[in-house]
Structure formats: structure tokens, C-alpha cells
Amino acid sequence: RKMPAEVPIKKGEFDLNTTVSDLGITPLGRLFKWAVARFCTRALPKGAPGSQKKMLRAAAMSLPLRNFFAMTNGAITYEATLGLLDVLNGKTLKGLSRFAKAMLSRRPPRKADLYKGGTRADTRGSAAPTGRL
Prior knowledge:
The protein is 47% helix and 0% strand. The protein is an all-alpha fold. The chain has one domain (20-123). The longest helix has 14 residues, at 92-105.
């Protein structure tokens, strides 16, 4: 079977599997791409060598959008990611309202809340269900 030709992605075709580097075809995508490249190195210690910063930027550019709500520990929710996708796909008002609702309606979980009362395993899947998720 023949491999399909590599066709560049167009506006309106973004999904959760789209990488950050693919977002550069829209103005908001370029802003998002710049922000990720600029702020991803903040996770490194102050005296980190330039090679580590370069590697981290390259890794961040190849991340799919589905990883952002998983990597931010709840600061950017799944719904907020879908709202961002709507904006990038040209559905500006729908996407902005979805993004705003997701970011304003729910506070991100804190590590202290996750580990309250024991280990994280106790709060996730204990043998006796408590009725809470």
C-alpha cells in the first residue's frame, strides 16, 4: 500500500493530535507557539546549559495538544484545550466562550488536595468505593 503524501495542515483541521509546531499557520497559533517556546525552559534550574534548553524547546514543539491538560496538573483543563482548538480552527466566539467557562468555572487541583489523608493511591482506586471520584 502506498504511503499518502505529506500534505501540510490547514486552518480548520487542527485536533488534539496536532503538535505545537503545526500551529504556526494561524496568528493565535504563532502566539501560542512562541509562549510555549519561551516559557518551557522555566522548568529547568537557573544554571542549566544551553543544550538542555534547546532540547526542551524541541521537545515542547513536538508535543501534541492532548498532552497540555495532562502536563499542567489541571491548570489547563480538557475543556479549555478544546476551546483553544475551536479558536484555532476559526470558531472564535464558540472557542473563547468554551475556554473562558473552563478556566473560570473550576479551580485547578492542588497537590495538597490530592495527597490529603494519605497517599495518592488511597484517593484514586481503593478497594472500598467511597462514592467520590
